[in-house]
């Protein structure tokens, strides 16, 4: 292999995770494309082995998450299929990429591991995780029955990989606690954003209301705290503080949120856009006055690094967010963040009042937060910072 240009094998075993434009799991899609494009921008050749791109389109399309969690028998069949596919795809990946890559970078998937076979042949195995998957899938998505095997495989992967990439310090601490992974090999690399796609100069705002609009983009799950936003907006409306809400995305909590909107009597002031194509998302964000990320604690910790946070910032939108690691950092370096205590309705209402009162300063806040995003939170900035840290860990482990 040429010393001038290194080659990365990008591995993703999850059948539902695809880079197709219509993939239901849009967050993972953005992340995969962001990482691969950043490596390429830094001079690497990237050879992907993404199982979801090789599956029939319906396997990664709309409704697949609901099918996985429809009933325990169906979930068990899916678990067994993942186990079988994991072994088959590990062999295929090695046949296709073996001897042709300098590193493999794998996005962790439940019940499946592709990078270990490369490691056995001397190729460094970098494993990236966004959470403690065996707990999330069982507790929050009801999409896992074989919890024992999933836990054993995940613990083994975290312990055995050469470098473990976690998206937050909280997740690093949790990974060490739950799996016994060596903290010396764990790198904290928060998520980033494609600042070329998410550029306010390129997109026309899509608005449903002339009122101050707080928007949310993402999968509708209970821990996203969208219900808290709706309750806060309803309370403030009774005070004479008028806030409309735009919700872009779909998920298990959508029907409950629609019912709550009706119960609160604010249906005329809430727009459910549903799941949209990734290239449509910037236009919706352009129509927000502030972007919402109201994550609540999960398993006693808040460890995610939400893509939405950086997408809002790249589009020049101040963030209205619960006080977690990434939001705190972004608010500090940009001065364009309004934070509230997680799950605290009264504190969210306080932050919303401040946001509405900031109207004349929103444009300046938007410029500051986009500048901060380009400078420190683009995917290229993330990967440029990560590569020498990976090299340092690998050198220590030789």
From TrEMBL:
Q: Show where the Glycosyl transferase family domain sits.
A: 209-370
InterPro entries the UniProt entry points to: Glyco_trans_1, Glyco_trans_4-like_N
Task: List the SUPFAM superfamilies.
Answer: UDP-Glycosyltransferase/glycogen phosphorylase (SSF53756)
Q: Give the keywords, sorted.
A: Glycosyltransferase, Transferase
> What Gene Ontology terms describe what this protein does at the molecular function level?
glycosyltransferase activity
- The record places domain Glycosyltransferase subfamily 4-like N-terminal at 27-195
- In Pfam terms, one family for this protein is Glyco_transf_4
| Positions of the UniProt region annotated as Disordered | 1-26
Q: What protein name is recorded for this chain?
A: Glycosyltransferase WbuB
Record the organism: Rubrobacter taiwanensis
